[in-house]
Amino acid sequence: MSLVNIDRAIRLPAPDVEGLIQGRTIAAIVWRTFEPGEQYALYPGNVSGNLPYDRYYRSHFLPVAQKALAQLNSDKVSIKAWAKCELCQMVNDPESLEALSLLTVWKTEALQQILQQRPFIFVAHLRVYLLPQPLEMPVHPSGNFVSLPKSLTVTDSTPVLSESIFAKRRQKLEKLEPPDYPELEELQSALVHLSTTNPKAKQLEAEIKMFLGWSSDKPVKPIKPDLAWINTIAALGNRTKELDKDKSNYQAGTDFEIIVRDSLEFLGFTIDYAHKGGAGGLDLLCSKPYPLVGECKAGKKIPNDTAVQLLNLGTLRLKDQEMLAKATKLIIGPGVPTPQLMDAAKAHGMAIMNPETLEKLVKLQSKYPNSVDLFKLKEYLKPGQSDDEVAKYIEQVEQEIKVRSQIIQAVKQLCSDSDFTTVVEIKVQYNATFAATDSKLTNESVKDLTIELSSPLTGYLGRIKGEDLGRDRFYFLRDLPVDD
Question: FRET pair for 323, CA 20 to 30 Å: which of 10, 40, 215, 266?
Fold first, then answer.
C-alpha cells in the first residue's frame, strides 16, 4: 500500500465516472494525451456534445447513465474515487470505433461524432480507486481540470478492479479485441432492476459482473436472509423440551400458530391477519392465491374435535358459506390422527399435515426459491392424512429440479469442446449420460427446458437466437447444485 496526494480532479461525464466506479469500463475519453502515472480525482459533470445521452451511451448502460445524470446537483458535487492513468491510446481509424464501442459504454455513433471534430480520440486507461468517504465540494461550471478544496492523501488499497482483472481488460482495450461474452452484458443489464428487490437476482448480477471482469475477483458471498427459524417448525409443533421450557400451553400454541403463518407466507400465501388466532379465533386464513382456512395444534397429538372446531370457526368468522365451501381446509398438528378425526376430516374435505411435512415444504422453498407451486400443492392436500401425498409432491419437484441440473451439466460438457450447442445435441448428451430408458427426453421437452433455463430470471444458460427456434444455440453460465 502506498500513499498518494491528490489536489486536482478531471472533469468527466457523470455516467462515465459511474461506469468507472462500477467497473463497467476502464476507459475515459480525454482531450489530450495523458502520461502513465498521472493521478486525479474523478469529477462528475454533464455530458458534452450535440448528442442526447440516450444516443451517446450503449443500451445496456442507459439505466446507469440516466441515474447518474439525475443525481447531479446544481450546488454540490460528490467525488467518490480517484484514478491513475496506466496508458493513453490514440484512435483515429473509423473501422476501430465499433470495437472500441463494444469494450466501453459509448455508442459507435457518439465515437464517430467525436472523431469528426478531432484528429484523434484519446482514450485513457484508468485504474480506479475508491475514496474512504465521498468528498463534497462546490460545483465548478467549467474547466477540464478542477482544483480540490484541499489536498487529499489517499491509498491504493481500495481498487475497483483487482490487478489481474484490470490487466486483462487493459490488454483487450489496447488491442481492440471484442468482448468475450456480449450476451452476458445484456443479461446483467436485465437483472439491474430486479436486483434492488430480489436477493437471488442481486446474487446472480454480482456473479455475472465478477465473471465479466466488472468487479473484483474476490468470491461473492451469497446473499441469504436469516432462515434459522425453518429448522424449528417441527419442534414447535411437537412441543420439544428444548423449545417448550417455562411455556404455558397457550404460549406454546401461539408460537406454533405464528411459525405456521410465517411458513405459509414464505411459501407464497397471502395471510389475512385480521383473522389471526387466539381464544375463539381462526388460526389461519389465506386469501391468495386461493382461500385457505386452517387450525394449528401443538402438542403430542391433534384433539378429536379439531375438524368440527375448524368448521365452526370458519363458519362463524367468515360468515360466507360459499367461500368456506370452496376454501382449502388444513389442519396442521403432530402425531397420527385418531379414526374419529380422520372420518371428520374426510367428511368435511380437510387435509391433515404434520409439522415435519410443513418444515420439508419450507426447506424446499428455501433451497430452491419459488419451486413450490401452490396450485399444484393444492392437488396433493387430500382429505384426511395428506403427508404421504405431499411427500410425493416434494419428491416430484426435487426430480424436476434434478433434470434441469442435469440439462445444465449436459450443456457444460458440450461447451467444454465448443462455444455453443444446440437442442438436438443437448438431448443426445442428456439421454446418453443421465437418463434411464424410461426417462429419455425428446427434442420438444429439451427445447422447453433450455428456454426456461436461459431466461433472464434464471440465468443458468445463455441463448443465442437463431432464425427459428430449432437453430437456437445455448452455452453454459452457472451450475444448479442439487443433492444426490
Answer: 266
Q: Where are the beta strands (DSSP E) in 224-359?
A: 270-271, 284-288, 292-296, 328-332, 350-353
Gap between the Cα atoms of 198 and 202, Å rounded? 6
Burial 311-331 (b: 16+ CB within 10 A, else e): bebbeebbeeeeebeebbbbb
Number of residues in the chain: 484
Cβ–Cβ < 8 Å for 159, 217? no
> Ramachandran region of residue 349, left (φ > 0), alpha (ψ -120 to 50) or beta?
left
Task: Count CB neighbours of 27 within 10 A.
Answer: 22
Sign of CA dihedral 290, 295, 299, 303: negative
Q: Residue 365 and residue 477: Cα distance in Å, rounded?
A: 23
Helix (H) or strand (E) holding 339: helix 339-347
- pTM (predicted TM-score): 0.54
Q: Across 323-444, where does the E strand assignment appear?
A: 328-332, 350-353, 384-385
Beta bridge partners of 82: 41, 129
pLDDT digit string (tens) for 399-430?
999 999 999 999 999 987 777 888 899 999 99
Do 480 and 405 touch, CB atoms closer than 8 A? yes
d(CA 73, CA 272): 45
Which residue has better confidence, 301 or 322?
301
99 neighbors 162 (Cβ within 8 angstroms):
no
Q: How far apart are CA 313 and CA 277, in angstroms?
A: 10
What is the DSSP track for 8-59? EEEEEEHHHHHHHHHTS-SEEEESSPPPTT-EEEEEEEPPPSSS-HHHHB-G
CB atoms inside a 10 Å sphere around CB 221? 8
Is the bond into 94 cis (omega within 30 degrees of 0)? no
**Distance between CA 313 and CA 345 in Å, rounded?**
15
SS3 181: coil
145: β partners: 10
Give tens-digit pLDDT for 371-402: 999 999 999 999 999 999 999 999 999 999 99
* 154 residue type, one letter: V
Q: What secondary structure letter does DSSP report for 454?
A: T
User: Whole-angstrom Cα distance, residue 361 to residue 346?
Assistant: 23
Strand partners, 129: 82, 159
Query: Taking the CB of residue 423, how many other CB atoms lie within 10 A of it?
Result: 22
Query: How many Å apart are CA 117 and CA 123, to the nearest integer?
Result: 15
Q: Taking the chain, what is the end-to-end CA distance rounded to the nearest angstrom?
A: 46
Most confident of 56-70, 232-246, 376-390: 376-390
